[in-house]
Specification:
Helices cover about 20% and strands about 20% of the residues. The chain is α/β, with parallel strands linked by helices and about 425 residues long. The protein has 2 domains: about 65-275, Alpha-Beta Barrel (TIM Barrel), CATH 3.20.20.370; about 305-419, Immunoglobulin-like (Sandwich). The strands form 4 sheets. The protein has a 5-stranded parallel β-sheet with strand order 4-3-2-1-7. Strand 3 (about 150-155), helix 5 (about 170-175) and strand 4 (about 180-185) form a beta-alpha-beta unit.
């Protein structure tokens, strides 16, 4: 018994450490195989095949900023005939701009601002030169570079490489390489509103060619994007504007100056022709660069092209006057075709005033019957043009002592509070 008991005890102790198949005399019972636990596998998050980088946020753009555009032609003085100024006067203009501190911006910056892609200073100047005279390159470019200014040259195809006073393709390529902008001035420099008397049977086809071919040839010969055009003589109409847009231009310029805003009609952008005289023999360059002209209408209404004058005001924008009962007037020619019954003048601190609008001269006039109080005044003209509301404004200061107001003359002046 003792020996058997000892053997059984030995087996009981050894069993947990020995496989059943190792023990002789024991039959192996069939055991259901256990299903192995699945192994934990790290699964990566799905990655899209291609993910476009997030667009950078657009900059804050000052939509109240204003731009004036200067238009030059020949820089030859009296020898250049019409549309010509002396080289010394051109340099004097550039020096005046430099002294004013108002920046000269590029055409690309101007267009980017209007697209909401780039900010510009509250006041800026664009410089343009028309036609493609060699004096613009030989005289104008060294002066522009001296003052660190850029410019846009509007050229028409039939005057390129003609010798004499015309610019060459090589010179245009040099302008491009120096960072200047090249724009279209059409093929033949004819009034786009009318079919020429010779050589064109169909106005639509001729207009399309003038706009598209000039753009295409400039782009192919210079490897540029020609985004802008200056209408010959500044003339345009609804048909010309539509054809210009259809041809792929981003902007069209006239020669009827006003302060341009971010919403001014892209195909009626006014320029101040420095060789043209303004009413009252005002100096066009001074009115432009001191931002004394009125604001161009925003939206669809167009700048007028048949009027011989630019929009001007009395008193001038930013002017300080000493007369307590001044005549307040404005020529509204460049606001487009206005509904005569819709024209209203309002003056800050006074409200709507009984101004008189003359449809023939497109002039609105008001003379206060009581003396103005010293201070700043904002004049707002509102009207309807083509069924759309348009508005423009300017400011002046009344000071019996004649001292100039320190405020920015282009800024809107707050209305005076009634006591």
């Amino acid at each position: 018994m003792t020996r058997k008991f000892a053997l059984l005890l030995l087996l009981a102790v050894a069993l947990p450490f020995t496989g059943c198949d190792k023990i002789p005399g024991l039959k192996k019972k069939p055991v259901a195989e256990a299903t192995p636990a699945p192994m934990a596998v790290a699964v990566a998050e799905p990655v899209p095949e291609s993910s476009a980088p997030a667009e950078p946020p657009k900059p804050a753009v000052d939509t109240n900023a204003q731009v004036v555009v200067l238009c030059y032609h020949r820089l030859e003085g009296k020898a250049g005939g019409i549309n010509s100024i002396e080289p010394a006067l051109f340099e004097k203009h550039m020096q005046s701009i430099k002294d004013s501190g108002i920046p000269v911006i590029s055409m690309q910056d101007f267009l980017a601002w209007r697209r909401g892609e780039k900010n510009i200073p509250p006041k800026s100047i664009l410089i343009t030169l028309d036609d493609g005279y060699v004096s613009e390159v030989e005289v104008g470019v060294p002066i522009l570079k001296k003052y660190g200014f850029t410019a846009t040259f509007f050229v028409y195809l039939e005057y390129i490489n003609k010798g004499g006073k015309s610019v060459s393709w090589n010179q245009l390529a040099e302008l491009r390489d120096q960072g200047f902008e090249i724009g279209s001035h059409t093929v033949s420099h004819l009034d786009l509103r009318h079919k020429p008397k010779k050589g064109a049977a169909d106005h639509d086809a001729w207009l399309k060619d003038e706009l598209e071919r000039s753009k295409k040839v400039l782009e192919e010969n210079l490897g540029i994007k020609c985004a802008t055009i200056a209408y010959p003589f500044g003339n345009h109409n609804d048909k010309v504007q539509a054809a210009t847009r259809e041809a792929g231009y981003e902007a069209g310029f006239t020669t009827y100056g006003a302060r341009l805003g971010s919403t001014t009609n892209a195909f009626t952008l006014g320029r101040y022709d420095v060789t043209a005289k303004m009413p009252g023999n005002q100096d066009t360059f001074t009115v432009a660069t001191t931002f004394q002209g009125m604001v161009a209408p925003g939206g669809a209404p167009v700048m007028a092209q048949d009027a011989a004058v630019s929009m001007v005001t009395e008193p001038l924008n930013g002017e300080t006057i000493t007369n307590p009962t001044p005549t307040i007037k404005a020529n509204l020619s460049t606001m487009g075709a206005l509904d005569a019954g819709s024209v209203i003048m309002r003056i800050g601190g006074l409200g709507e005033v009984p101004a008189i609008f003359d449809p023939a001269s497109k002039t609105i006039t008001f003379t206060p019957t009581t003396a103005l109080r010293p201070g700043g005044y904002t004049v707002i003209i509102s009207a309807k043009s083509g069924g759309r509301a348009v508005q423009t404004k300017w400011g002046f200061t009344f000071n019996p002592d004649g001292a100039s107001a320190p405020a920015d003359p282009a800024a809107e002046l707050p209305p005076r509070k009634k006591k």
